[in-house]
Design a protein that fits this description.
Elements: H1 10-17, H2 23-31, H3 34-49, H4 64-90, H5 98-107, H6 115-128, H7 131-142, E1 148-151, E2 167-171, E3 176-180, E4 188-191, E5 200-209, E6 212-222, E7 235-239, E8 252-256, E9 259-262, E10 272-273, E11 279-280, H8 291-321, H9 340-375, H10 382-410, H11 422-434, H12 439-458, H13 468-474, H14 485-512, H15 517-523, H16 525-551, H17 557-577, H18 579-585, H19 590-607, H20 611-616, H21 622-625, H22 636-646, H23 656-666
Parallel strand pairs: 1-5, 2-5
Antiparallel strand pairs: 2-3, 3-9, 4-8, 5-6, 7-8, 10-11
Helix pairs in contact: 2-3, 3-4, 3-5, 6-7, 6-8, 8-9, 8-10, 8-11, 9-10, 9-16, 9-17, 9-19, 10-11, 10-12, 10-16, 12-14, 12-16, 14-15, 14-16, 14-17, 14-18, 16-17, 17-19
The structure holds ligand LYYUSVKP and flavin-adenine dinucleotide (FAD).
């Protein structure tokens, strides 16, 4: 849709006059510097001027088939634009750049069917191929001569990878693998792009050679003819059907009937099958084939931050424009943003988007550093990265989904309109809580790491930095509550340490009473999930505080003030959310809690004048927001009416169903 131009709504104009800081400074901080901001805007200009974002009818008014076809059209032209103009004009070759990710949302309100190509197919090639394999597939994939996806999950198993049923049996006579789907539940299910779009796929299957099963491995499989796009003989493939979101992502199913692929199509960077069928196991770490999942989990923290920033921008702008009720009799109706309860719903969204974005950047750097260690043959830092990426993916996607839904509640009835974009944003982020490892499952992975760390610290061994609080706790360090940033972080670490200690005790007590380790663990899993979540909170709080301190060192005083107000709001919010835990594991008193409550309420008042400016500082163009409620000009009512009038349902004054059914009913002739 072409956005109509309106004058700025006077309430929003006034809000912007109240701003106390230089918005551009905050924009630069989150982009990573002035130059990065200018580069991002250049990319956005190119895409927006390309005309690719235009739809003749709103996406939500199209049929599922039309939506898919429209998304394919845009994906193809966008890919071409990335290969040509974007590369030439901006000089950018790295398509993983966050700027490209951001502007992609101007094209797709829902999901691109090509999402998994750059999101998982290419990263798997990079992470799992030998250098010879890399030379074959990577240039083709980057040049889009082949389009791929990642098919791991099956109808019967998603979480339990070891339980996957698809088999890849090596035939030494022909030097081929035979892929087979032995049961109904062994069909691949869910892979993005698989239904109709892709012609290649990374398939995860149980490897059999010389009669022995060596567990799951990765295989490059061509599934469709490159010219006709027909499924190859022996392949059954299709779309799984309508879903809550991801409507244009053509998630698919896939079955193999003794389908043969060359030996070289097993991705052999870590484990190999030699020509005669001899299996060579990975030299360094048994879980290196899971590396793409770690990569995606890291990127999903960024997705949580970005999508939350979109939702809270929409809801804060709308709340500055919307007027409702009376604060005192006969006074004019206030902006709903003036209600402290509305501020309570929204300002935590702004602070959380900051916290998650800075945590995402920090996690990305940690990921790169672990990758560089692994290139040198050192896999020692992988377990901590796995534990961190697991809990951060779980908690950030889950919190973001809740806060996005809260933004929708904050917009009342109009938030329920698809044109607000809030339902789309929510349904996307809700899916990220499940895929790439469900919330509970990933927290249990982190818990496993925490229990081990506890045992190591008990044995007097040094533990990694993110769990060093465990050693302090074991040394008997008592928590004394202080309402400073550092004091609050220490108390949250004391909560995490206390919960891990109880888990360890609970497992040991259960074992003493006769249970084996597995049962003792199983019966403790509710506490283990809780302990991992507490650990994750302490990591986010600490990272957020440290990163704001580091990044605002040379900022103006006003930017320092407002960024720090948000940090304090975040710390106070979580203190008040977790008073039960803090009373149990730290020395916080009722007086301290009263102080934190007052501080929190005062902060809402302090932040209020800057609220609109703070969401403007996410620098999200209207074309990315796609929202009748959240546009920069605040012309909410004009846009809602405009969209209603453009609704295809209103193209004819009387719908044919009147003549077919209603009239006969009215006349008693039905
Ligand atoms: C739940 C999982 C992790 C369990 O795996 P399993 O093989 O059963 O392992 P164990 O629980 O026995 O743990 C063994 C050992 O391995 C470590 N470990 C596990 N995962 C990793 C990893 N990724 N990196 C490094 N190390 C890992 C674990 O810590 C244990 O170590 P110990 O030293 O304690 O022995 C697993 O099955 C899993 O990850 N399940 C989730 C499935 C999933 O994420 N699927 C994603 C499919 S693709 C998708 O969803 C795409 C979406 C679309 C899009 O992204 O856009
Ligand atoms: C939109 C979307 C896109 C996707 N895209 C892809 C893709 O491109 N490629 C791909 O391979 N997959 C994809 N998936 C699949 C996704 O990765 C899985 O759905 C996800 O990993 C969860 O697995 P599951 O569905 O088997 O859930 P289940 O494991 O069946 O989980 C159901 C419930 O059981 C609980 N549970 C399961 N095991 C345990 C346990 N051991 N302990 C405690 N609780 C347990 C879970 O916590 C959850 O609450 C996609 C999924 C979605 C929704």
């Amino acid at each position: 849709m072409v956005l109509k131009k309106y004058n700025i709504n006077p309430d929003l104009a006034l809000e912007r006059q109240k701003c106390t800081f230089d918005i551009e400074e905050i924009i630069n901080i989150f982009d990573g510097g002035k130059e990065k901001t200018s580069q991002r805007r250049k990319i956005e200009d190119v895409v927006l001027k390309s005309g690719l974002c235009h739809d003749d009818v709103p996406e939500e008014c199209m049929s599922l088939k039309e939506r898919y076809e429209n998304a394919v059209r845009k994906s193809c032209f966008f890919s071409k634009l990335m290969k040509t103009e974007l590369q030439e004009i901006t000089g950018i070759e790295d398509f993983e750049t966050p700027a490209i990710r951001r502007i992609a949302d101007a094209l797709f309100k829902d999901i691109s069917p090509f999402l998994l190509h750059l999101g998982m197919f290419v990263p798997t090639i990079i992470g799992q191929c030998t250098s010879e394999q890399l030379m074959i597939w990577l240039p083709k994939a980057l040049d889009l001569q082949i389009i791929g996806g990642y098919a791991q999950t099956e109808l019967g198993h998603g979480t339990f990878i070891r339980g996957l049923e698809t088999t890849a049996t090596y035939d030494a006579d022909t030097e081929e693998f035979v892929l087979h789907t032995p049961t109904l539940t062994a069909h691949k299910w869910w892979a993005g792009g698989l239904g109709k779009t892709i012609n290649h796929c990374i398939v995860v299957a149980q490897l059999y050679t010389k009669g022995v099963c060596y567990g799951t491995h990765l295989f490059m499989v061509q599934i469709r003819d490159l010219d006709t796009h027909m499924p190859l003989p022996g392949i059954k493939v299709g779309e799984i059907g309508p879903r809550m979101g991801f409507s244009s992502a053509d998630n698919g199913f896939l079955g193999f009937n003794n389908f043969r692929i060359p030996r070289n199509n097993m991705l052999m960077k870590h484990a190999q099958v030699q020509k005669d069928g001899t299996y060579v196991k990975p030299a360094r770490h048994g879980k290196l084939t899971y590396q793409t999942m770690v990569f995606v989990r890291v990127t999903l923290v960024n997705e949580a931050a970005f999508n939350l920033s979109k939702a809270v921008t929409i809801a804060v702008r709308y709340s500055a424009v919307r007027r409702q009720s009376e604060m005192r009799p006969n006074e004019p109706e206030p902006q709903i943003l003036d209600y402290p309860t509305q501020q309570h719903k929204l300002f935590i969204g702004i602070a959380t988007a900051h916290a998650f974005q800075l945590t995402a950047n920090w996690l990305w750097n940690t990921f790169k550093s672990v990758l560089s260690d692994m290139k040198k043959g050192d896999v020692g830092t992988l377990p901590e990265l796995h534990a961190l990426s697991s809990c951060l993916k779980a908690v950030c996607t889950s919190d973001a989904a809740l806060l996005i839904e809260q933004c929708r509640y904050a917009c009342g009835g109009h938030g329920y309109m698809l044109s607000s974009n809030l339902p789309y944003i929510y349904s996307f982020v809700a899916a990220t809580r499940t895929y790439e490892g469900d919330y509970t499952i990933l927290l249990l992975q982190t818990a496993r790491f925490l229990v081990k760390a506890w045992e190591q610290a008990e044995a007097g061994k040094t533990v990694t930095p993110t769990v060093s609080y465990i050693s302090r706790s074991l040394k008997g360090e008592k928590n004394s509550w202080r309402s400073t940033d550092e004091g609050i972080i220490k108390s949250f670490q004391a909560v995490a340490a206390g919960k891990i200690a109880l888990c360890v005790k609970s497992i040991r007590d259960r074992m003493k009473s006769g249970l084996d380790y597995e049962d003792a663990w199983l019966l403790t899993t509710v506490q283990l999930v809780d302990a991992a979540e507490a650990h994750c909170r302490s990591v986010i709080l600490e990272t957020y505080c440290n990163e704001v301190r580091r990044l605002t060192k040379s900022s103006s005083d006003n930017v320092k003030i407002v960024m720090h107000q948000l940090v304090t709001l975040y710390l106070s919010y979580w203190t008040l959310q977790r008073t039960g835990d803090l009373l149990r594991y730290s020395s916080i008193s009722e007086k301290d809690i009263d102080f934190m409550q007052r501080q929190y309420e005062e902060l809402l008042q302090h932040i209020r004048p800057n609220a609109v400016a703070l969401v403007d500082a996410f620098d999200l163009r209207d074309e990315i927001l796609h929202s009748s409620l959240g546009a920069y000009d605040g012309r909410v009512y004009e846009r809602l009416m405009e969209q209603a009038e453009n609704n295809p349902m209103n193209a004819e004054p009387v719908n044919q169903s009147f003549h077919k059914y209603i009239k006969p009913l009215l006349q008693g002739k039905l």
